[in-house]
Amino acid sequence: MLFLDSSNPAEIRELFAWGVLGGVTTNPLILSREAKDAILEERMREVIAASHGPVSVELIAETEAEMLEEARAIHAWDPARICVKVPFGEAGLRVTHALAKAGVRTNVTCVMNFNQAYLAALAGGTYVSIFSGRIRDMGYDAREVIEQTRARFDRERLTAEVLVGSIRHIADVNEALFAGAHVVTVPPPILRKMLHNPKTDETIREFNAAWANRGK
Ligand code: E4P
To answer: Which CATH number fits the domain 2-212, given the four candidates 3.20.20.80, 3.90.1150.10, 3.90.660.10, 3.20.20.70?
Structure first.
């Protein structure tokens, strides 16, 4: 499955019309670029209206108590659609566990290795976000992390889904899917690039020209 990594309502609406997307992820960096003058709640309501499926909104608070308070407020915007994105860490695990017990969906984010992914799943995370591009920045093999995580989740029948983000190239999408990602969250420019192949364009032009010139 593919999600869109964006907080731009117009672009989200346009790309959801392709019929290939099943959710949206955002993060504070994306929002600081795309919605710097917007009120977060209003922007997220626009994102929800422009899409379908789960919409991840990340917590900014750093202490457990503040994170839980923020999570409850964000979740109340749309309990059926909001997925609370929880930064990985000790407080994050406690918050993930508490939200899971309360029936709130979570997306444990900024996960860079198998150990973290495993802890996030054991704590009750709904999605575990593995950051492909950033793992590669550190010199590690993102494919191996995704493969090992998915294999272990399956083996222990953990319900968490492997969500792969930090996608920089089309090849990253394919690699993540073949390695076992349940979901890949794709930035809009990468999704647009997935459309094109010069041979497809050439073939369509050839077919249309043949039809236009039939009988000549
Ligand atoms: C995933 O949910 C994140 O929003 C995102 O993919 C982070 O990737 P980055 O490395 O482009 O910041």
So the answer is: 3.20.20.70
pLDDT in tens, 30-62: 999 998 888 999 999 999 999 999 999 999 999
Q: Which residue numbers are catalytic?
A: 85
- The verdict on the CB of residue 165 being under 6 Å from ligand 1 is yes
- pTM for this prediction: 0.96
- Residue closest by Cα to atom 11 of ligand 1: 166
ipTM value, please give it.
0.97
For the chain, the three-class secondary structure string (H helix, E strand, C coil) is CEEEECCCHHHHHHHHCCCCEEEEECCHHHHHHHCCCCCHHHHHHHHHHCCCCCEEEECCCCCHHHHHHHHHHHHHHCCCCEEEEEECCHHHHHHHHHHHHCCCCEEEEEECCHHHHHHHHHCCCCEEEEEHHHHHHCCCCHHHHHHHHHHHHHHCCCCCEEEEECCCCHHHHHHHHHHCCCEEEECHHHHHHCCCCHHHHHHHHHHHHHHHCCCC
